[in-house]
UniProtKB/TrEMBL annotation, chain A:
Keywords: ATP-binding, DNA damage, DNA recombination, DNA repair, DNA-binding, Nucleotide-binding, Nucleus. GO terms for biological process: DNA strand invasion; double-strand break repair via homologous recombination; reciprocal meiotic recombination; telomere maintenance. Signal peptide: none annotated. Its main location: nucleus. This is DNA repair protein RAD51 homolog 4. GO terms for molecular function: ATP binding; ATP-dependent DNA damage sensor activity; four-way junction DNA binding; single-stranded DNA binding. Belongs to the RecA family. RAD51 subfamily. It comes from the Eukaryota. The keyword Transmembrane does not apply. Involved in the homologous recombination repair (HRR) pathway of double-stranded DNA breaks arising during DNA replication or induced by DNA-damaging agents. Bind to single-stranded DNA (ssDNA) and has DNA-dependent ATPase activity. Part of the RAD51 paralog protein complex BCDX2 which acts in the BRCA1-BRCA2-dependent HR pathway. Upon DNA damage, BCDX2 acts downstream of BRCA2 recruitment and upstream of RAD51 recruitment. BCDX2 binds predominantly to the intersection of the four duplex arms of the Holliday junction and to junction of replication forks. It comes from Grus americana (Whooping crane). Part of the BCDX2 complex consisting of RAD51B, RAD51C, RAD51D and XRCC2; the complex has a ring-like structure arranged into a flat disc around a central channel. In the absence of DNA, the BCDX2 subcomplex XRCC2:RAD51D formed a multimeric ring structure; in the presence of single-stranded DNA it formed a filamentous structure with the ssDNA. Interacts with SWSAP1 and ZSWIM7; involved in homologous recombination repair. Interacts with BLM; required for stimulation of BLM activity by the BCDX2 subcomplex XRCC2:RAD51D. Residues 78-250 form the RecA family profile domain.
From TrEMBL, chain B:
CDD domains: XRCC2 (cd19490). One of its GO terms (biological process) is double-strand break repair via homologous recombination. Residues 4-185 form the RecA family profile domain. One of its GO terms (cellular component) is replication fork. It comes from Grus americana (Whooping crane). Gene3D superfamilies: P-loop containing nucleotide triphosphate hydrolases. It comes from the Eukaryota. InterPro entries: P-loop_NTPase, Rad51_C, RecA_ATP-bd, XRCC2. This is XRCC2 protein. Pfam families: Rad51. GO terms for molecular function: ATP binding; ATP-dependent DNA damage sensor activity; four-way junction DNA binding. The lineage of its organism: Eukaryota, Metazoa, Chordata, Craniata, Vertebrata.
Amino acid sequence: MVVLRAGLCPGLTEEMIQLLRANDIRTVVDFVSSDLEDVAQKCSLSYKVLVAVRRVLLAQFSAFPANGADLYEELKSSTAILPTGSPSLDQLLDSGLYTGEVTELMGAPGSGKTQVCLGIAGSVSLGLKQHVLFLDSTGGFTASRLYQMLRAQAEDEEEQAALQRIQVVRVFDVYEMLSALQELRDRLSQQVVSSAGPFKIVVIDSVSAVIYPLLGGKQSEGLAIMMQLARELKTLAREFSLAVVVTNQVTRDSSTGPLKPALGRSWSFVPSTRVLLESKEAAWEKATTQRVASLAKSPRQPTGIQVELDIG
Amino acid sequence: KLLARLEGRSSLKNLEPSLFAEEGSPVHGDVVEFHGPEGTGKTEMLYHLIARCIIPKSGGGLEVEVMFIDTDYHFDMLRLVTILENRLAQRTEEIIKRCLGRLFLVNCNSSTQLLLTLYSLENMFCTHPSLCLLILDSISAFYWIDRSNGGESLKLQEMNLKKCANFLEKLVREHHLALFATTQTLMQKSTNSVESFFPFKLQHETDTDYRPYLCKSWQQMVTHRIFFSKQCNSGNSKGFTVISCHLKRNHVVKRSFTVAECGVQF
């Protein structure tokens, strides 16, 4: 709701604002949607001037259409596929994590979501030598575990450098998460060419931990904040060509129904790809590192494919 | 220019006959709503329609231009290119780019920006006579945010969407477009017995998981409502169903489709 004020665009003077306000035109939307001939008469302003101002306001506040061919060219050069660190998971995801998209990992507690996230962070940092932003809302990030995983794959000096490329921010509510994302956005907008390599991935473990406290009470406010967060994640992914990975819990409709992602219907539309992590059935007695990952939603592959993972 | 527009007018009838309950649909001026829960094939169907439009006549397409307004940041260009590559006999870069040149994309971040963008797009419709398909994915994207911003007043909550709906109707009418918009199933179908006494409830609404929540202005301008759902056969995880309703004449048709590498197949 942008309010009209002098200097908002060239040609919009204080006297004009006063005249418009006297006729109930206060915001940009009011101005753009009114009949300019009518306004010109009532406010005794020049029709030509009003048309010119309208054109400038629209150019300033509306979105600009792009041509499909141009967009395709851009995407070809900016889209990357990031390895998750686990070849079978990469296969499930049609080569890996695509930039420009939000990918969701869902699973019950103990299903291995945090481990997979650590694996992804390690793989991108060590393998691609790129920076990673890890937003931790559960307190589950342990640097020592990550160090262990890197040690197993890296050579001597590399794991220190790899750890340094992973930035961990602990966030405990949705506002902290939103402000961490805003900080990221500011940093990326100002960045010219970074010598440390492009920034390509954000891992969020988990998104349900910060959203759950908001849902259920005064329903629409919590849902609105959740959708703001969803919007922020998707625009970050698109505008800066990032891969965004989020983790979520699971629920069931009834005690025998299929597992579905938590956070409800509105959230279910947000990720482009969704992977379900489960323990293998035979592993009830002993704790193993074997997991089963199934593809629940994908823009590219048929759903239902399953692979086995070792998160050890 | 008028002749070009008249010629474009008859060409949309072959867009996708399986989607519609009546022959000869869609015509210019139609407003089609795709409704369904996530993962039911709405976006794939949109890619299918786009491909049908932008592929040249020599390739079996309609060779018309499409305007795609994306409010969800959901559009996957690489997927569209895969579909095009599978449908064209000659898959050269040159031909793909020419097809894509007939597609225009806009991203909108709020209902206010959507409204202002619609105003500024009006000019484009005037200057591009072969632009006759407008797609809006999705029109329900700002529902919760608008509801929260509007506070307690339903009127304020719905104000932006109402203005968008009214302006869309004007655009569709004046420039002879066909509008396809998706809405997401955000709410559970009401099992309230009072609602089931509502005399004007159409047959299709009781069969499907549909609970209207967008403003009246939008609901009244829709001419066809198409419901998407997954088929529940145990063996077939790739099948989807559409239930297509012509709202004015109350014709309902049910069809199924699958999604393959080349896109939607009926």
